[in-house]
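Replying to the earlier thread about multi-chain prediction with a worked example.

Input:
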Amino acid sequence: MFTFLAQATAPAASGFKFTPALGMFLAFVAVTLVITYFSARKATGSAAYFAAGRSIKGWQNGLAVAGDYMSAASFLGISGIICLSGYDGFMYSVGFLVAYLTVLLLVAEPLRNAGKYTMADLLAYRMNPRPVRAMASLSTLTVSTFYMIAQMVGAGGIIEKLIGIPFAPAVIGVGALMLVYVVFGGMLATTWVQIIKAMLLMCGAFALSWMVLAKFDFSLGRFFDAVAAADYAGSKAAKNLLDPGLKYGATLANPWGAWDFLSLALGLVLGTAGLPHILVRFYTVPDAKTARVSVVWATAIIGVFYILTTFFGFGAATILKQSLVASDITSAFIPLDAKGQLNGNMVAPTLALVLGGDMFYAFISAVAFATILAVVAGLTMSASTSFAHDFYTNVIHHGKPKTQGEEVRVARITAFVVGAVSISLAIQLGSSINAAMLVGLAFAVAASANLPVILFSVFWKRFNTAGAVSGLVVGLASSILLILLSKNGPWGWEAVVPGVAKPVKMGFFPLENPGIVSIPLGFLGAYFGTIFGKRDPEAEGKFAELSVRAETGLGSEKSGGH
Amino acid sequence: MTQLDWNRIAADPGFAELKRAKRRFIIPATIFFLVYYMALPVLVGFWPEMMKKPVLGKVNSAYLFALSQFIMTWVICWLYVRAARKWDIMNAELLKRLGH
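Result:
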């Protein structure tokens, strides 16, 4: 594969050179491929392939959940947005963490107790399985694909900058590698890739924060004094980055700013509990107790990580310089993207270069690569599991795979298709699409479509098939429609607002984040669908069974599936 | 396990007690953390001047409130784990008594 990669880049690779970053990345790839090789020998049968034989320990799964969560958007995106927009960017850190309380208190244990491989298993217990599974599968594929394109678009741009491989081959290389993990190693391999990556990322985050604090002689007072008058190393007028409202403040140009901030916050806290690639992780552990332990581990790790974003996010604004003139830019500047805007995604690696030199830059870059690769593998895994298990086996074949191992074979083929589709979409979109918008869409869709039906199905006896389907449809459709109608969508326009110097981007829907409207709509859709649908005595009769399963864990899927 | 068995467990007073014990913790805890969390964007978005006031050196109340969300999350996590230990014992007793 690497010879292929090298061949593909050879003609256009004027910027290509073997750098320490590439070397470290290749070392990570080599280690993980060895893991994949050993996992592949174990990955026979559905429980082994889809759920790692339900053999993952609590702390291991906690690291894997944390790894899945600390994606390129978290590490590169948040450090960038805090560095450029200050406090409003820190809201992502807070929301991403508090979201785990929703997972821990409401979702993790019932889901582990009553499910098998996917969130649709939980819904299908009481409902008419075919329509519910078909919709749940569609929503899973939608969320995963948007999330994945965002990661791939980010990846391509970063790889282009870091090791000089052009965008298209870079994306193809990442995609091909990820397919190797998923197709051959299944859930066991992707879990171990996440665990290793999470540890590397934590080391990187600690080292980066340490170096930032060393600049201030480890005095928090001096650090915050500098952040309160951040001047990008003298390249800009000083501003107080601790002040809220730099991005979402209500201004003449953006009168809805505060509502947008509220909507973002709501989407963040409720979105995680509906993210399919996080939810599938709870099926890889032996029981609900271990699922609980793994959420606690994840919360501890993720919390520490997001507190560290204070140092390498805010800190970057005191150390790195800003300029929009390409010829000015040297190594101490935040690089520009293809459109000539400041590339927030490159803040963390650039900071590493300035503070730690070439080798540390190489390490942080390799961690960033590893992050993207691992998260994309996890996403592909959850998408293909949902398609094979929910759609192929249960919708098309009424719950019975025709031959032994067919489900796994279909999942492997789906992984290939999902990979190919997102690779080609990412290449088509290029780096011009806003990756943050895609991740925002994924969170909003997850919170609007998936969360209401998961909660109602466990906690509401009267909930029925009509309610589940209408909740999924309304949540999915409204969140996507509102994003398309926002100023970032295809029908956004620019208008001149009195008193504002530059033209302002406008949309039919005044917010960038749809959550505050689409999440209540998702709940209402599920509620009214149930009320107006016929009462379903069978679904209500099975509520007792689902309750007992969800609360006691009786009859749950056991470990050791190989 | 037949439908009858499930219904028998569901109708057991011990099961109702387990469910009640869980809800007694989960419902107030969920309401508390959602209100505490959403108070952050509401205060910061609609009363920015108040939240911009420096409290500790240059550190303002907006940042301190955000930091307190981390503590809040860990504390609720810890309380949940402590409560869940009791539920595990109740659950084990219930299943043993019913012969599972």
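Chain B touches chain A through 51 residues (CB under 8 Å).

Feel free to reuse this layout for your own posts.
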